[in-house]
Specification:
Helix content: 40-55%
Largest sheet: 7 strands, mixed
Number of strands: 13
Distance between the termini: 40 Å
CATH architecture of the largest domain: Alpha-Beta Barrel
Number of domains: 3
Oligomer: single chain
Order of helices and strands: HEHEHEHHEHEHHEEHEEHEHEHHHEEHH
Number of helices: 16
CATH topology of the largest domain: TIM Barrel
């Protein structure tokens, strides 16, 4: 762990020097994915101090850390908060103990709710939770009951509802292997859709704004950091497997630890202007407000409604897209079939 932290700080130093300006400004910092909450709390504080040494962290910066419920204790949460973390994202996944236990999760639903309470007591006024619809052992009723408990007993500022995906067998997680070999059965696709739609309706009815396919927030608590990805704004990634978009260029760090520690990185910028435009379009279409075509055309130098007129007309006919008053957006059905929409546009 000590070597990893030292390598991570060197990675930060390399990236700061490549930017070529004195202490570049940061308005968001995001610790995660993975499980940064496994690190000793003092090391989180050390990483944020290093950020402050290398960059100009704006006073109102959004500083998020992902945390597992089992890692939260009053003293640790207090150190995180004092170090500058002001937004916590709790990876709950489910509040159904029957779905948690077989996956080896080291907490119960009651302990997860207690973890949220400890975060609140430590001063976290901006709390997000992640839920996954479609886990083995989950039913529509148990999942929506969990959503209800999240709203009533945690009342987070932000909720993410992801659909379980196991199609990428290359990931070969234990769950992926169990599904592939038939040792674990998933809920039917129709049930997973019902979980998502039910969660959406319950959250919207409780005052959450549905602002991105998988994300809901109390007004003013949308993830400022993640909005950068969906609107193609610059971001700088450090750590193994991290991706960056800086000055119009994309690059990624290797997953292999020794190669990453050596400073290796690979450029994967899309060199064709039309390909960059299509990528930006599908990213921004993830937002419920859709795409302002005039603003998009000014930014990217082409009108997607003209460039992709045939595809857009077909998607409109299929009830997946709506093109109205200079704006392009997914329909409710398009939200559920967004991969098909994005595939048609790229």
């Amino acid at each position: 762990m000590g070597k990893f932290l030292a390598d991570l700080e060197r990675d930060m130093e390399r990236e700061a020097s490549r930017l070529g300006s004195e202490r570049p400004s940061l308005d968001t910092i995001y610790l995660g994915g993975g499980t940064p909450s496994h690190l000793p709390a003092e090391d989180i504080a050390g990483l944020l101090k290093k950020c402050g040494d290398l960059f100009q962290v704006e006073p109102e910066a959004e500083i998020t850390m992902e945390a597992n419920p089992e890692d939260i204790a009053p003293d640790r949460a207090g150190v995180w908060r004092a170090a500058g973390v002001n937004r916590m994202s709790l990876g709950l996944q489910s509040l159904n103990d029957s779905a948690l236990a077989p996956r080896g999760r080291a907490y119960t639903s009651g302990q997860a709710i207690e973890a949220a309470r400890m975060a609140r007591n430590a001063g976290f006024g901006n709390l997000g939770v992640d839920l996954i619809a479609g886990l083995p052992g989950e039913t529509v009723g148990s999942f929506l009951s969990g959503v209800e408990r999240v709203v009533q007993e945690i009342s987070p500022e932000h909720v993410s509802v992801y659909l379980l995906e196991t199609a990428d067998v290359g990931l070969m997680t234990p769950l992926t292997r169990a599904v592939a070999t038939g040792r674990t059965a998933l809920p039917a696709e129709e049930e997973t859709v019902e979980m998502y739609v039910g969660a959406r309706d319950r959250l919207k009815g409780s005052g959450y704004r549905h602002y991105e396919i998988s994300n809901f927030a109390r007004p003013g608590h949308e993830s400022r950091h993640n909005l950068k990805y969906w609107t193609s704004r610059p971001y700088l990634g450090v750590g193994p497997s991290a991706h960056s978009l800086v000055a119009g260029r994309r690059y990624e760090k290797p997953a292999d630890m020794p190669r990453w520690a050596s400073g290796a990185r690979s450029d994967y910028t899309l060199d064709v202007a039309q390909a960059r435009l299509r990528e930006a379009l599908v990213l921004q279409l993830r937002l419920l407000e859709g795409v302002d075509l005039t603003r998009f055309s000014d930014q990217w130098g082409a009108d997607p409604a003209q460039l992709l007129s045939r595809q857009i007309q077909q998607l409109e006919a299929d009830g997946l897209l709506v093109h109205s008053r200079g704006r392009l957006a997914l329909t409710d059905r398009g939200l559920l079939l967004s991969n098909e929409v994005f595939g048609a546009l790229t």
